[in-house]
């Protein structure tokens, strides 16, 4: 029972803290709303706020989204090439092992 009271106390204090945090976060403006209003300094257009600032922030987000997609595609392509390279290396190593085993086998037959 004491554990339940303690958990209830902790849970209610956490939700109060989250509520106050949400109010503080919700009071500030979003990206592109201007310097000092949550938009931060990002150039004169974004500092002025308004629709131009929001558009600049949206274009910036779009740019980085596209850049990240390109980087992921390049990483995926590179990884496929690495896999193909290693598969080829495995094939060559297996062939080399077979050659060496044949040499050992042949040399054992000649010594007998």
UniProtKB/TrEMBL annotation:
This is ATP synthase F1 subunit epsilon. Belongs to the ATPase inhibitor family. Residues 30-44 have a biased composition (Gly residues). PANTHER family: ATP SYNTHASE F1 SUBUNIT EPSILON. It is found in: Mitochondrion. Transmembrane segments: none annotated. GO terms for molecular function: ATPase inhibitor activity. It comes from Diaphorina citri. GO terms for cellular component: mitochondrion. Residues 30-49 are annotated as: Disordered. InterPro entries: ATPase_inhibitor_mt (IPR007648).
């Amino acid at each position: 029972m004491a554990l339940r009271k303690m958990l209830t106390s902790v849970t209610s204090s956490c939700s109060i803290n989250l509520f106050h945090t949400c109010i503080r976060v919700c009071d500030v403006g979003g990206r592109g709303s201007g310097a000092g209003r949550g938009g931060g300094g990002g150039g004169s257009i974004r500092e002025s706020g308004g629709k131009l600032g929001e558009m600049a922030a949206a274009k910036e987000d779009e740019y980085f989204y596209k850049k990240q997609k390109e980087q992921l595609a390049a990483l995926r392509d590179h990884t496929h090439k690495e896999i193909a390279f290693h598969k080829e290396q495995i094939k060559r190593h297996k062939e080399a092992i077979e050659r060496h085993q044949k040499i050992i086998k042949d040399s054992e037959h000649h010594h007998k």
